[in-house]
Fold:
Amino acid sequence: MAKRSSLSIRIVEGKNLPAKDITGSSDPYCIVKVDNEPIIRTATVWKTLCPFWGEEYQVHLPPTFHAVAFYVMDEDALSRDDVIGKVCLTRDTLASHPKGFSGWAHLTEVDPDEEVQGEIHLRLEVVPGPRAHRLRCSVLEVFGVALPLAWGALWSQPHPLLPFSGQIVKKSCYPRWNETFEFELEERAAEALCVEAWDWDLVSRNDFLGKVVFNVQRLRVAQQEEGWFRLQPDQSKSLRDKGNLGSLQLEVRLRDETVLPSGCYQPLVQLLCHEVKLGAQGPGQLIPLIEETTSTECRQDVATSLLKLFLGQGLAKDFLDLLFQLELRRTSEANTLFRSNSLASKSMESFLKVAGMRYLHGIVGPIIDKVFEEKKYVELDPSKVEVKDVGCSGLHRPQTEAEVLEQSAQTLRAHLGALLSSLSRSVRACPAVVRATFRQLFRRVRERFPGTQHENVPFIAVTSFLCLRFFSPAIMSPKLFYLRERHADARTSRTLLLLAKAVQNVGNMDTPASRAKEAWMEPLQPTVRQGVAQLKDFIAKLVDIEEKEELDLQRTLSLQAPPVKEGPLFIHRTKGKGPLTSSSFKKLHFSLTTEALSFAKTPSSKKSAFIRLANIRAAEKVEEKSFGSSHVMQVIYTDDAGRPQTAYLQCKCVNELNQWLSALRKVSINNSGLLGSYHPGIFRGDKWSCCHQKDRTDRGCDKTRSRVTLQEWNDPLDHDLEAQLIYRHLLGVEPALR
Structure:
């Protein structure tokens, strides 16, 4: 049995943010921290006080977390980024909203005295004495504190009249004191014992790092108390004005699950699988009842859980086929087929994101990159055209509206033509399971709507998913489909939107209804008509695959471990001698599968096994001061001889770092021998840079965060969790089922 918590986070937009730049604007982005640990960074939206992000994340984390905080930052290329404000939601607040917190929240000022983190190890005991009891306080060590400067100190104050301080431990985020203090407890002693941690500074004021408060009377009764205690902020100050920093629109939902052993879910899984194998002709009623009793607001969650469950059972195609048949039965008009947000539509969307994301990147990625690189002004709507000056220096002339429209049409025709040509050549590149699913969909629709008057209906059924629900959304919002690291600027966004509209027209088979909506798209009609012919030819080849060929393809693919994540990283394997700098890293192309982490000189080169998956013991961040970069992670593993090793890998940005950490943690989450602590620094010379311990093999000074992960569409599947989510959903709709 395991307890798991997850956060569904959607960072929608901000409004009325204060200007941080001399231009009267800001370049805002958000950082999400769970218990002061940064786990998410959104893209930067440039030059605006009302940014729109629309980014969604699923975060898995330990059920013991306390709070999630959203920091709005202003990016600055020349100096440190400015903090605009934050929104903090405690675990109790989220738990009080079973359907999730949704709405606008005012940003509050970030007070350094409230930005505390870490824990302190204390031992407290009441010792009887001849005249009065004595309180013995042993201050052992601290880890995880956020030190503004590299100096640590501890101050403690059990009574306002009896202040004392411990020794100063210099240049350490993980100080160890092992000091003991004794005080006489008078009958009228103070009600509280307060232990505070401070950052000592010789020049400026000391910085508060956190405190722990104990009830003295409770200590008298218990006689002794020892453990790690979470450092708490100083909340004695009055709340600041919340109305002048702007607001943030958020959707955050906490979900706690108790996942039982696999055997507990086998009856439910077997029942669902049996029903899917029988198909629509069988006596099963559970999936139709799930569909009927699922509300619109949770249909996507249910669809994704069911899909992942059947993917794990090798029945995704059969599950989708059953949903296709159920929807076809109740659809009488061909032009409304799969247009609603039904369980079939939502499941197919999730399926394409799980099984077809790499395929999407191969087809759409180069076109998106070209649009971002060119940054051309593109507009087809005459009411929105901006006339620009053109020509060489000294010979400027205003560009006419007709010239703008013609150049825009040429640009869009080129992009659309390149996209359709790439798609038409990609039949073999399409994943086998996707091809098989589209073939089944095409066949079912053709059986339901036969005749020449419905000749295009099977094609439109395929394009309604491939173009309208997959390619077009990815073109409009490439950041949300991992095609780009940043959101597009206003000019690029307009180009992408017009291109997505053109793809939708092709997907609709260039119907009169689609043309009538926006007559100014007419200049693209020749390319759209040609694209319809190309798309129909592509779909005909896609679904015309022999059963034996399909099985051979799937068998070949099953022998290959598909990459969970891949991309360029910089590697440095330190020997512990000399200074370490970013220049000592070597760039290689890494690939992570469910078997090993491998590397090659280029994506197409032969890969060399680097770290076997079973040997990974931890994947964690490295302190910025270690390499002069905040984007370095370490993979702690054992070699074939069982000796501990550490590989340092540098990522290009914080988002890439968090994605790699998440992927590495997920694929190794069931490994034996996972570490509970690690060193966030490096062993340089004769000691660790983080805690100054001399023994290289000593236990780590900070806790590992192996359970904190981000969800991506190509995540390793957790069958037990998906079965638990379906079981919980059935319990929730039990009255309706009865």
